[in-house]
Sequence to fold (384 residues):
Amino acid sequence: MTDKLPPVHAETFAAQAGGDVDAETGAIVPPLHMATTYIRDADNAYSKGYVYGRPDNLTVRQAEAVLTRLEGGAATLLSGSGMTSATCAFLALERPAHVIAPEVMYWALKLWLREDAKSHGLDVTFVDASRIENIAAAIKPGITKMIWLETPANPLWTLSDIAAAAGLARQHGALLAVDSTVATPVLSQPLALGADVVMHAATKYLNGHSDVVAGSLTFARRDDYFGRAERVRRMLGGILGPFEAMLLMRGMRTLHVRVAHQSRAAMAVAKHFAADPRIVEVLYPGLQTHAGHAIAARQMRGGYSGMLSVRVKAGTAAAIRTAAQVKVWKRATSLGGVESLIEHRASIEGLGSPCPPDLLRLSVGLEHVDDLIADLDQALGANV
Ligand SMILES: *Cc1c(COP(=O)(O)O)cnc(C)c1O
Fold:
């Protein structure tokens, strides 16, 4: 690899995936490195730094370098899913450990924290993380090792104050981890606000095309905690596959334009349906009526993400019927892709979910926003 970029904006770095040009061919798209094993040197060493595909891989490293730059971190570890990255962040803590997590958060990770974490030596306290006082009250001095935030958080788009939580964590010798999947590095920079590690379900916005399952952890420092996380990934074999890393790198080239468009379009959808009598409430951090708007305005830059939820006044059955009647939106789970998705969220989260049963979760893609509004409008039509 040659011709590294000079110091440039994150947009420039992402658009050129770091700016590497292949030394052998001059190719401006890096070659895909699929090898699982590497030749030893004559003197029995591995001077090139690559030994085997489970610890690392050049294509994975290239994608990690792009994300490290976008998040302003010191190092990134990519893994096979957002869940792998998130559980890796917890399993890298010295245990036994007490951790604090939000009541409103990605449901599968909450399930793991509720039902599986104990057997890994983790004691978890769930709090309403929209108020810093609640996080402060849950801290067990000397015992709490990590505060985990998700902001904005699924599926109510609850905001948590990253800088305030970072202050608390530092004061008590704990780490602050932020699931920034929805905000993306385009809208929020948790490390700059004091977080120690930022996690993404790269499956979502970072890849952006609904064709890769991947996760990431980006670390503020290459310290002991990073070393332990790298060891967990290596020992559990959680590394992302090289082909997926290549697709992810391709996806991140367009991250800034996608997120900027999706944020503008989501705001238009939110404003339109906020005035619709068939809707009880539109949940979107960009609306001044949203409980987290003040924090969002402070810690998100240039947009409020492409995610919003609407609550259907006619109730649960009508919400499910609406999701069944759309023709442009795709009725599916997940988020952050180029195609807009609609989902009756309580149906997938199941029992114990804080999700209101009349809620539809919307992931706004890259279609013309008038088509999206018209389609949801006709789907709601029957529910007056
Ligand atoms: C999807 C998602 C996850 C989990 O990621 P996977 O790639 O599905 O394992 C974690 N957090 C958030 C906010 C998500 O949306």
Observations:
- The mean pLDDT is 96.
- Residues 142 and 172 are 7 Å apart (CA to CA).
